[in-house]
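Researcher: Go.
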Amino acid sequence: MPTIKDDLTLEQLQGVMSSVHQGDTTHEDVVETVHTALRRPENVFYRDIGHGRGMWVARNNTLICPHHPEPTAYYLGGCRWKEYDRVRDANADVLNLARGMSYKWAMLNLMFSQMALEGRATIEEVRASRIGGGKSVIYEPHYTTQNFSRPDEPLSELEKEVLRAKVVPVLEGLVQYIFAPDMGTRGAHVDFVAHYAPQNVACMSLENGRSGDPSLITARGVYESMLESVAYGLHQEGLNGLTVAVQGIGKVGSQLIDYMVQDYPEVNLIIADSHTGKVTEELAIVRDKGITAHQVQPNEIYDQQFDIFSPNAMGQVVNPSTIPRIIRANRGKQLLIVGAANNQIDERRRGGRKEVEGLLKKHHILYAPDFVVNLGGILNLIYEFDSVRTVFGGAYKQDRPLEVIHGVRAILREIYDRSEHTRLSTQSIADRLAEEHLARWAVFGGFGPDELLARSYLVDMVPNA
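Model: Structure:
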């Protein structure tokens, strides 16, 4: 991990947090300019890395980063290594994901800032969460399983060669991009890259003294978000008597189930995953604990009767096709959507988000914005920073991130309250909260609307889509 220099004081943070408030017209133009700025990346880098592969790195926005006295505009987002149908799909993916990371980092810093002013977080945690939004994608035109390792295997020779000869030079050249695991990459990839570019990685393994797999903390954030959503939307404490439909039981989904059944033995589960063997194993575990649970196919989950839909696999599953099916199966019920998957609302078609949000509002479905619900993933990794580890005993421990992820509930409560008051969607309110917070840092950094629009927007070697 890089050493991020930041001399922000608690007194300065108080000034930052008071600079932009809801309804404050003084800086409304700054908020609107931030909204516009987030729609286009600060930089997109592309390199042909051979054999039909390409690597994109997108820096969406670094307003939140320390700029004084020394610029340390680091940006972080996982590296997604997967097969795409078309080159332009990979390009679109990296841009969308990088923008999402800007919102996510802003929301995490907002959470820590509020907690620090209440005496429940340290200034070091606030400083460490001042990271910009970024993402990388390796376009794989011919993904074959024999060339890529499974999660329980050492990296293949092909993976090592691509990382060592192609990815590491990109990271060394970009300097301020921090490489982390995502779909198609994991801690083993990070550990390998760290041998060559130790200042460009996050989420190294626990064996190497770092934060490792963040899924436990991510799942805890989903669980806390679910409890807050139940309290707000269903006016109920806890999950007993409710039916939760869990789509995807990877590391996050399975640990989410563990949290639920441990605390609420009368919860009912519907489980769906493309790997039927994993579902069979999970069903055996939860049924052995006396939990009522059954399996459905991933595409059948939208036709089931439930109280909470929890998408924890692929994105775009909250869309104009699935929502009507959910509504038909659950007429007259108050429903919640709370899950860890990224980009759950399908925005690929023009007007798609507006259509989805209209359906959610019309049928009183409470949607917990995904980039708030899954904050645990990035929250966990800031405890790799030496400045933060020193405060909490000098070594990474899961106790602290498991404790502070509870703060996501206050953020969600603010989103729900503002949504009810303004009648805007919860997703729009979450976006607005993040944009307001970035506007605070823009004001603190001396950026006005003209300076924000004049920031460098560069595109380097992007191939024809």
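Model: The two ends are 34 Å apart (CA to CA).
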